[in-house]
Specification:
Number of helices: 4
Number of domains: 2
Order of helices and strands: HHHHEEEEEEEEEE
Distance between the termini: 138 Å
Strand content: 15-25%
Helix content: 25-40%
Length: 280
């Protein structure tokens, strides 16, 4: 059994501990139940900037992806259009094609390219191939949010179209009879051509200023005159001429610049006479 003195000692110690303990209703008791607020401030100071950094970086990546998709769409649309136009000899100037593509980007905000729209390089485009339309653009991509300047990558986007030449298997797989000679004619033409690249049907078109067209001459030394189809004037906004032609035009869609070419057997040329340049 516990002695009477020992019981008194335990009771006294218990009373002393309860007396020294702060009541929960007091100010000190409330703060004792709450977490330390200084640690929350430190955590917020670390987490919020990191969250914003990763969020802005992700948005910049999505913006770059959106631009590359838009650029690929522009290349596709222009390549498809040129595959038709070049077949009809309506347009063969790479400068005009590049201008058309750049015009679709005018007014676009936040282009993620070093140098902006001027940083796009279309030097890889090739419209000289008789069978394919090859368009490409190169640029150095950047992130719009890149505080440390760490992201600089070379991008190249490319499309290749088979032109509408009228042959399913290409120029080298026409499926013609080996003993048959094929020639080329245009709509309502009076001559036939032995070469698809004859300058009568494959025009070399270039744009000139109206003030200079009166002084220019073709390869035969002849001055250019106004086209009877489009009635072009030197004061028109755009003037187009061909190396071998004798007229100037105010539109690439002018029928004087259009050639709808098809191949037929030589035995079916009828009353058409041979071309003076390629007809032998």
């Amino acid at each position: 059994m516990l002695s009477f003195d020992f019981k008194i000692h335990i009771l006294s110690k218990t009373v002393t501990e309860r007396t020294n303990q702060k009541p929960l209703g007091s100010k000190e008791g409330v703060f004792r139940l709450l977490p330390k607020q200084g640690s929350l401030a430190v955590e917020a100071a670390l987490v919020v900037p990191l969250f914003l950094f990763f969020a802005l970086t992700l948005l910049s990546c999505l913006q770059l992806l959106q631009f590359s998709i838009r650029m690929q769409q522009i290349l596709f649309e222009e390549g498809l259009l040129l595959s038709e136009k070049i077949y009809e000899s309506k347009a063969q100037d790479e400068t005009v094609a590049v201008s058309e593509m750049l015009s679709k980007l005018q007014g676009a905000e936040g282009i993620p390219v070093d140098g902006g729209i001027q940083g796009l390089d279309f030097g890889g485009c090739n419209l000289s191939d008789p069978e394919f339309t090859d368009l490409s653009v190169s640029y150095k991509a950047k992130l719009m949010f890149d505080p440390f300047g760490l992201f600089r990558r070379d991008f190249c986007q490319h499309v290749l179209f088979h032109r509408w030449i009228g042959y399913e298997n290409g120029l080298n797989g026409r499926g013609w009879e080996e003993d048959e000679i094929y020639v080329y004619i245009t709509e309502d033409s009076e001559v036939y051509h032995r070469s698809r690249n004859c300058t009568h049907i494959r025009l070399a078109i270039r744009e000139v200023t109206g003030s200079s067209v009166g002084d220019l001459k073709n390869v035969y030394g002849e001055h250019y005159k106004s086209c009877r189809h489009c009635h072009a004037k030197p004061t028109d906004a755009h003037i187009y001429i061909t190396t071998d032609g004798d007229c100037y035009h105010n539109s690439l869609s002018c029928s004087g610049l259009s050639r709808s070419v098809r191949a037929i057997p030589l035995s079916q040329v009828g009353n058409r006479r041979p071309c003076s340049r390629c007809g032998y």
